[in-house]
Each structure stands twice: as C-alpha cells, then as structure tokens.
Design a protein that fits this description.
about 350 residues, single chain, Arc Repressor Mutant, subunit A, 5 strands, mainly alpha
C-alpha cells in the first residue's frame, strides 16, 4: 500500500495493469495526433528551420524553468541568447542551459537511443554539475506547507533498475499509441525522480525527444510547458492521483489535451510568423529593392535580437555593409535599434511579439 512518507521502491513498471486506452483516451489521441501532424507539416514550410529551434526552444526553456520558479523576462532572455558572453542574471543563464540541454538531446538521438546515460547528460547540462543518479537517501517532495506528498524510490540500484525498465518500455514494439506512451513515460520518469534536482525540466525535455525519436516530429518544437503552467494544479493533481489511485485515464487525457492544444497554438504561431516574413519581404522589396535579399530577411527572423556580427557571420557582407543594411531596415520600420551598454541591437519587434504573446 502506498505511503507518502515511505520511499516508493514498489513503483510498478510500465505498462499499467489497468486498461489505459479507453474509448475517451483513443478519441482524444486521434485528435491530438491530427493536430501534431498538422504542426509537423507547417514547420516544414519554414524556409529556415533553425529559426524555429532557436526561438521556440527559448520560449519552452523559459516556460519550463518558470514551473520551477526560475523566472526571467523575455527581453532579458533574448538579449542573453544573442550573446552568451555578455553578463546575464543567474536565472537567464539557467534558462539558456535548458536550451543547451534540449539541443544536445536532439543531436544525440540521431545517433543513439534515449537511455539513462542521455537522461543524465541532459540533467547535468541543465544544472551544470557532474551529478549522477541519486545515491543518498532522504529525498522527498513537499507541498507549500512543508508536508510530504511523495517520497520517490531510493538507492542507486533501485533507481537504475527502474530507469532500465522505463527504457525497455519506451523502445518496446507494442500496440500502444505513441502519445499515450509519452504520457505514461512522463509520469514514470517523474515518479522515479532519479536526480537530486532538475527532474521536472529533464522530464519535459524527454517528452519532446521521445516524439522526435518516434517520428511524430522532425524538429523539437512541441513545447508543453506553457500549457502546464496554465493548468499547473491539474498537472500535479494528475501525477498525484496516478500514484495514489492509479487514475491513469485522467492523467493520459490531460497530457493528450496538452499535446493537442499546444500543437494548435504552435501551428498558428508558425502561420503568423510565415505571414509576417512575407509582409516584411514585400515591404523591403517595394521600398528598398537594392537592399533586399532572401538571406537578409531570413537572418532578421532567426531571433528577435539581431546584431551586425550575425549578418557578418552569415556572409551577407562586410561589417560596414551589414551596419548599413540594419540601419536601413530600421528606417523602414522593420527593425528598432536599441543600445544596451556598448552593444547595439536591432530588434524585430513584430517577431518578438509573436513569439511572446
């Protein structure tokens, strides 16, 4: 019998013994899969898909970190991302590490499977420490009143065994819907709670990587953290009820709804970005035809904060030429110049608003 104050070393392996794919779950899985497929197709229309990874990943990093009460402003974050050598708050640096961890995982799953060693690498990048799977006892999850609500499994051997079982389930060829499996995997990882810190963010990265690994996405652009923030109480209540009541159906429905709503929202966001790019392209071609180039437009849409060095590195021209281009785009109202310290940024305000609304 489950006891909140006792390490949950009896956490059952996946799949659950109860029926998970109920008619309601299967109906929602169809809707979520359709929305996700439409997002995948829309993303493939982007002329520069690096932009999606750079900018949308940053928003996921900010939202996922905010769940852990690590808060930074969008303005500070985009400025820090434009030059990581510049001074930034500890919060902004930690958010950027989340992006680094997600990008690392995305690169790695092209060459190796999602497995414990990769989980550890992701957590290490997030926290910038060499820690490993928990070895010392005493970890517990408490509520805002300091009351224990969950005590995860303890002892390195037990935790590694449970992670090994999770790997087996993730890669098993079975009849379960992939999105349903993602929901089950997310609960299980959070219940194992393998690290002393960074479990929530690592688990949310695994959601994205699992969908890419299974071919439902080509790019890591489905970011559930904003949905979780907006429905945070239901998220934690769902996790708790699976542990205490085996309420899998409600938990899976919550996660499927998160996938559906986030896919629809992100698809609309990409649609709006593409429309904005077209409008800017037409405006520049009409008002400054000698200035226009496809590469220039794509560069100022890679992220909201642009600098002369970005255009230089992209091979668009010399420093003097790139500065001239950016000033001309400022004159046309496409960009807004802003001096911060000794650095001058050229901000794509319309893109900034689309990404942060």
């Amino acid at each position: 019998m489950f006891d909140r104050d006792t390490p949950f070393n009896d956490l059952p392996p996946l799949p659950p013994t109860t029926e998970v794919e109920t008619p309601a779950v299967l109906k929602k899985a169809i809707a979520a899969s359709r929305a996700l497929a439409e997002l995948k197709g829309m993303a493939e229309r982007m002329p520069n898909q690096v932009m999606l990874i750079d900018s949308l990943v940053l928003q996921e990093a900010r939202a996922s970190s905010a769940i852990e009460n690590i808060v930074t402003t969008n303005d500070e974050l985009f400025r820090a991302a434009s030059d990581e050598a510049l001074p930034a708050s500890p919060e902004a640096k930690e958010v950027l590490r989340y992006r680094q961890a997600l990008n690392h995982g995305f690169r790695q799953i092209r060459e190796r499977p999602l497995a414990t060693n990769l989980f550890i690498e992701i957590a290490q990048l997030i926290k910038q420490t060499g820690f490993d799977v928990r070895r010392t006892p005493g970890t517990r999850i408490a509520n805002g009143f300091g009351e224990t609500i969950y005590t995860p499994p303890e002892s390195e051997a037990v935790i590694r065994d449970k992670l090994r079982d999770l790997e087996t389930f993730m890669h098993a060829e079975d009849s379960l819907d992939v999105l349903v499996k993602m929901a089950l995997v997310h609960y299980q990882f959070e219940a194992i709670h393998p690290f002393s810190d960074g479990n929530g963010r690592t688990g949310r990265i695994l959601n994205i990587l699992y969908l890419v690994d299974q071919g439902l996405l080509n790019l890591p652009i489905l970011y559930l953290s904003r949905h979780i923030i907006e429905h945070k109480a239901a998220y934690y209540e769902g996790l708790r009820r699976v542990t205490e009541e085996a309420a899998w159906g409600d938990w899976v429905l919550y996660m499927l709804n998160a996938v559906e709503q986030t896919s629809l929202r992100t698809r609309q966001q990409i649609t709006d970005i593409l429309a904005l790019m077209d409008a800017v392209r037409e405006h520049v071609q009409r008002e400054a035809p000698r200035l226009y180039s496809k590469d220039l437009i794509e560069q100022i849409f890679r992220q909201p904060y642009c600098k002369i060095q970005f255009l230089e590195r992209a091979g668009i021209g010399t420093r003097q030429t790139c500065a001239k281009y950016l000033r001309e785009l400022e004159r046309l109202g496409v960009l807004r110049g802003q001096k911060v310290g000794r650095e001058v940024y050229f901000i794509n305000q319309a893109l900034f608003e689309l990404l942060t609304r």
